[in-house]
Amino acid sequence: MEHFQICPVTNYYQRILLPVCFILVFLLGSSLNGALLWHVCCGTRRWSSTVIYMTNLAMTDLLYVLALPPLIISNAMDGVWPFGNIICKCVRFFFLVNLHCSMMFLTCISVHRFLGVCFPIAAVRFRTKKLALFVSGSVWTLAFAEVFPTLVFARAGVIDNVTVCFEMTSPRQFKVYLPYGLFLVVVGFLIPFLVIVTCYCSMMKTLYCRAADRLSNCRKAYTRNKTLHTLFVVCLLFVVCFVPYHVARTVYLFVRVYMPKDCARVNTAMTFFEVWKPVVGLNCCANPLLYFWGSSRHRQKLRAWLWRRRRRVQPSVCLVNVGGTNRSGG
């Protein structure tokens, strides 16, 4: 294991802020995405392309929050890494894989909605179940391929006789890591970000024009205004959750490469980077609410499904349990 002497790091926020934030993200993200997956698997009979994308998004968000416990323990121990080098590599790898998968599935959903709103007739050919399955598999494959070098760069090391798990790579490899770090920012964040913003701005423009043309129909105008607000909130949430994190990550990487001996700037860049990490996790908690439970159609389906579960008597269960307990949902 490598030993390093680097700038002393100011980590007063590490023992309290990061563990508390990560615990909240873990509890909310696991419960919301777990409930969403349970509802989809148990209550969905016909899997449309929309449901496929949303299910994959919930799955990757759930896997993201499940990678947090080792980081929670390490941060609570003031940055000490007690799990060894292999688990360090795996945690960093799956953390980034699920983060990139989440952004790419958000991109898929935005394109999917963009086609339905702006090109409803042409979208019929592209919004198919078969294509959604192919795209979902491609997203997982691409994310694994993008993040695979992390298994080489990420490692555990010893700084001032303390074992840590480096966020990106060891201090000696930052210059080698820089091109790959910029590649992750461009391919894994910048391109999806531009696609999402373009799609949602186009949808808002289209819906606004339609609402202005049909103000006589109050119900349609109200529905479109509500959709506009939802699209704006989704776009704003993506910007707030992902943009500051990737900007702070990139700045920290450049400071580490070009100003490694300027301890004040290193500490400032690291603090901003670390503080924005939990904000990324908030996106995993908000996605189930915005993309699934926020849909009136899905809320109606959920209420109807829960009502049937409470009121319905299963004939097969009654026949099997003759002489036993008859579960009638009451």
Describe the 3D structure.
The protein has 330 residues and is mainly alpha-helical. It has a single domain (3-288), classed as Rhopdopsin 7-helix transmembrane proteins (Up-down Bundle), CATH 1.20.1070. 75% of the residues lie in helices and 3% in strands. The chain contains twelve helices and three strands, in the order E-H-H-H-H-H-H-H-E-E-H-H-H-H-H. The protein has helices at 17-43, 49-66, 69-76, 85-118, 123-126, 129-147, 150-153, 174-213, 218-258, 263-293, 296-311, 315-320, and strands spanning 3-4, 156-159, 162-165. Strand 2 and strand 3 form a beta hairpin. The longest helix has 41 residues, at 218-258. The protein is globular. The N and C termini lie far apart (61 Å).
- Given the helix and strand composition, which structural class is it? mainly alpha
Distance between the termini: 61 Å
Poorly predicted segments:
315-330
Radius of gyration, rounded?
23 Å
The gross shape turns out to be globular
Largest sheet: 3 strands, mixed
CATH fold naming: Rhopdopsin 7-helix transmembrane proteins
CATH C-level class? Mainly Alpha
